[in-house]
Amino acid sequence: MTDKKTNAKAASKKPASGKVTKPLRRASAAKSGQKSQKPDDKSADSCKSKLFGRLKKNEEQGAYTSVKNLKSKRAFLGKASGASSRGGVEQDKNRFRLIWGIALLILVALIGRAYYIQVANTQFYQDKGNELITSVRTQKSYRGMITDRNDLPLAISAPLATVSFSPHDYAREYYELKRIIITNPESPQLLARMQKRLDNMDLTTLAAAANISVNELKRATAIDPTIDVTDEVAVKAALPSGAGSHYLPLLNKVTPEIAQSISSLGFPGVNEKNFFQRYYPQPQPNSQLLGFMGQNTNDPEGGYEGRAGIERQYEKELAGDDGKVLVLKDAKQNSLKEIKQVEPEVPGKDVTLTIDSRLQYLLYKELEKAGRLQKARWSTGMVVDVQTGEVLALSTWPSFNSNNLNEMTGENQRNRALLDVFEPGSVMKPFTVAAALDSGKYTATTLIDTNPGSIRVRGYTIRDHDNLGRITMATLLQKSSNVASTKIALSLPADGITNMQKQFGFGSKTPLQFPGEGSGLVVTPKEKETSRRATVSYGYGIQVTLAQIAQAYSALAAGGVMHPLTLTKNDKAPPSKRIMAHEQAMAIVQMMESVTEDAGTAKGAAIDGYRVAGKTGTSRRINPKGGYYTDQYRNVFAGMAPASNPKLVAVMLIEDPRGQIYAGLTVAPVFHNVMKEALRLYNVPLDKPLKTEAQ
């Protein structure tokens, strides 16, 4: 009986086999109403725990699941996989497609990126790469020379070099070599090379080549032999810093041959910069004409350009075009070698002036002597070839040394003959005579009554130095009569005098096109402005430049043909034009001969063996506060020789002379000395008998 009960209990505890629809759950002790002993309870709980653990695991793995639950579950991105959701063919196929799709997208992205870098945008990345290992260096072009008419140099570009030393770069290289030697004891060949380079860095060698104290170099480099060269921070702290650590001049503005003696040593930290410096062999006589060079603020490399005079006027022709060279550089930005020429260098063109340097020097010296003798503010002058309009000499005193711009001031750099405008005075009277002859009312023999030596015009009294009485045109010029000039002006139309002055180029810039050249001012008076009509006839109330006077007198000397002034041989001369009849022009030249004779106002301008024609002008200087100074004058003389067939015209001016007042005593002698030498230089034949000792 007992055995049967025991077997029944055992049979009731045996788990059912087959499929179940729900996980088996432990029956509640309260519901069963059974109580067991404590030892049996522990054994039963252990068995139940194992049973329920296996069932739970099977449920998670899908081994035991109902048909209802099977239909509700779907494979990821696919259909139901049957009884098991793991390892199905459809699910593996979808996963395979997904992975390869992602891989294909990544591959397409990589190919697209490679195409963009290597094909579509290849130039950009090539340029970026080239910036790291190459640089474009400007190759300065050779600036053209400025020469005189005989090809003698007036301005040349001398090749120079500046050699500097960088203590910072030297020390960095020194410590780097030391580090390589210490950290590579197993490489004897490398050690030998590094030690040789280190031996070549002896500062004594550099000091001897640069003629500089070796102690100065040692102080600048500040090499510390006790430093741990393997410690990058310590080395960086030991490198020279501050002023002079990257630039210590060794040689300044020396010839390339001298610079080569240092740069050829291959010393670390030594840099050579080559450039051209403008040099003027004849500085003072030509300084205002040629101008000077100044730094170009638009040039990142600090190049120079013409700032005044011919240097500025012909800047484009003289400068040429700089070249560009592609240079390979190392990690320290040092140039290793030139790779190729990016843009070719175009040397500047030479500019040939019409100036004769011999005559230019003589003119300057005479202006300087007269200026100092008369204690004048300044003096200036020009010499012109009558037949061509070429300017043979053009200079101003005081001047400055073009090779040392520290001497230059706002006053001594002005080319007075071209830039300054002034009231010329009586040198304008020949053009008043020209207007009279051109009007048909007057001839060379017409008499003009100047009695009583003065004339009243609109409340103003115009006087001559003496009562000349009835005079001819020649006497008007010889004695410089203001009264006769006034009577001619008032007898002509209101614009009669000024129109003739404009025909001779007054009131307009000359064709020289010099930078800053003045144009002057000639205002045509109205009919009722009788005082202005009178004053313009003897050179007041108008403004002119010395160059305009030289051009106008050259036109008279050429028989009434205007040959525009020229300063360069390179340019095509403007066409000439006739502005008055030949007979009338030569009649005026003949009248002006009397000015240099004994009874004239400029007998100091006469030259033995030559007939000389000219005209003086003594005018008062304008007072900025109004009116004119009573003790300050301006002296001008314009003349030509030989008068029988004029070849040369010269015009001289002295501003505010303190020794003498009249032009015949101040500038006429300057004309005499300059013209006499010019006639000799150009072998102009005599047109007048030489004076003998008996005479």
UniProtKB/TrEMBL annotation:
Main location: membrane
Region (Disordered): 1-50
GO biological process terms on file: cell wall organization
Chain ranges of the Penicillin-binding protein transpeptidase domain: 382-676
PANTHER family assigned to the protein according to its UniProt record, in alphabetical order: PEPTIDOGLYCAN D,D-TRANSPEPTIDASE, PEPTIDOGLYCAN D,D-TRANSPEPTIDASE FTSI
GO cellular component terms, A-Z: plasma membrane
Transmembrane segments: 98-116
Localization, UniProt: Membrane
Domain Penicillin-binding protein dimerisation: 140-339
Basic and acidic residues compositional bias, start-end: 37-48
Claim: Cytoplasm is one of the keywords in the record: no
Key words, A-Z: Carboxypeptidase, Glycosyltransferase, Hydrolase, Membrane, Protease, Transferase, Transmembrane, Transmembrane helix
Originating organism: Psychrobacter arcticus (strain DSM 17307 / VKM B-2377 / 273-4)
Top-rank taxon: Bacteria
E.C. number: 2.4.1.129
Enzyme kind, highest EC tier: transferase
Gene name of this polypeptide: ftsI
UniProt feature, compositional bias: Low complexity: 8-19
InterPro entries: Beta-lactam/transpept (IPR050515), Beta-lactam/transpept-like (IPR012338), PBP_dimer (IPR005311), PBP_dimer_sf (IPR036138), PCN-bd_Tpept (IPR001460)
Pfam families noted in UniProt: PBP_dimer (PF03717), Transpeptidase (PF00905)
Gene3D superfamilies: 3.30.450.330, DD-peptidase/beta-lactamase superfamily, Penicillin-binding protein 2a (Domain 2)
GO terms for MF: carboxypeptidase activity; glycosyltransferase activity; penicillin binding
Name of the protein: Peptidoglycan synthetase FtsI
